[in-house]
Design brief:
Length: 143
């Protein structure tokens, strides 16, 4: 009886250790740099929609693009970046770059001068750098 319990316990531990093995997946999040930005307006009324057309590349051989963007609001400033998960255990095939064009929609409810900061990578001093676009939001006329 004791031998059967030992064998059963050994089997359970062995099987559970197989189930918990690390499959080699190591994930890191990263900001993806925009290549170019185009705004359809530079002046808008409050609560009026406007678009930013954004262009960037990522590498699907080792990256998975998030469906949403990194977006930080600070007073009259907005900072935007695509985000990707990078599998650190995979070798990136740099010939597999995929270009993305997307339309980001904005609407502001408060009048003022806004700065939209679109991440474009790091400069020579390894500091984050941005495309900066200015938007003037004017009060909507009340009829």
């Amino acid at each position: 009886m004791m031998k059967k319990l030992f064998l059963l316990g050994f089997a359970v531990v062995s099987l559970s250790s197989c189930l918990n093995e690390d499959d080699g997946l190591q994930i890191q999040n990263r900001h993806v740099a925009f290549d170019n930005i185009s705004l359809d307006k530079e002046t808008v009324k409050t609560d009026e929609n406007f678009n930013a057309i954004v262009y960037f590349k990522y590498n699907p051989s080792c990256e998975r693009l998030y469906q949403s963007y990194y977006y930080v609001v600070k007073d009259f400033e907005r900072t935007i970046s695509p985000m990707a998960q990078v599998n650190l255990k995979k070798t990136c095939d740099n010939t597999k770059q995929k270009s993305v064009t997307d339309t980001l929609k904005f609407k502001f409810s408060k009048p003022g001068k806004y700065t939209l900061r679109f991440y474009k990578g790091h400069d020579t001093e390894k500091k984050a750098s941005f495309f900066e676009k200015k938007i003037v939001v004017e009060s909507k006329a009340i009829n």
